[in-house]
Amino acid sequence: MVKERDNVTAQDVAQRAGVSQSAVSRVFTPGASVSKKMAEKVRRAADELGYRTNVLARSLITGRSHLIGLIVAHLDNYFYPEVLEKLSNALQDEGYRVLVFMAQQSAENIDDVLAEILDHQVEGLVMASVTMSSELAARCQAAGVPVVLINRSQDDDWLSAVTSDNFAGGRKLAEFLIAGGHEHFGYIAGWEGASTQRDREAGFRAGLRQAGLDIHSREVGNYRVEAAQEAARRMFARGDHPDAVFVASDHMTFAVMDVLRVELSIRVPEDVSVVGYDDVPPAAWPTYNLTTVRQPANRMVSETVRTMLNQIEDSTAKPHRIAFDGSLIVRGSARVPEGWFE
Fold it and tell me: Which domain holds residue 268?
């Protein structure tokens, strides 16, 4: 192998590989068409010379950064690291890289990071379960940066959104618990400003109303472990506590189940049935064995990437909104209706 030296150029690599400089450029341009044999020859020559592409310089020349910004509110919920990994891998397959920005759930906080996001010249912005203010939406639109929401929707007509069908999921859980013979239903809400929270509760209430029932007791957990624990303590401190409770996310549900069983000595599901939403990996652990609604993460990520790339390539593309149906996953945390699996 030739000793590495400074200031190796694409022309040096082309000469070593016996190809044109444009061929070298294509090999190191994400998404460019090039044969496997050509790519191997060029990359071997680049390795021998110690050549590394200057991504920043290339972006200045082409006007393309191939960067996608991703804003997330938190990563302690198992659902979001999974989505982040799948989204990053899918975008990398398309020649893009992801820059992750952390922000709180409030629209005001997200506005604070906008300048930093746009300074990185991102070509698109994916927002995972955070709220976008109208001002931020307008500024992104003015900057020509397409935005796709994942696991959250808003009323702005120009915003694309990819979610699971949270309303239908909430209704499924109501129907399941009613079929199990429950009479008193509790609900522990997520963050009140989230469309996921709003739609899951609306679907749950609609399912109960269809049977002439309503929510017996309600608390708010804000999609946070500590808040969910406190919500469970308040709800079950009363003598007339519910015999079934729907918690608006698995992340909160685990905290609720721990309080019920460890602190309050309430048996699940013998004394109270508990159901959640998301179907993150711990839901299948024997410790929780949680009945929940599964968010179709693979389909949601694929649709988010497809929508984003379409809007990057076609600035006139219309906003795209879709909600995927989520399956009810029945395990052992809730009473199973007789004949359910027949």
Answer: 166-295
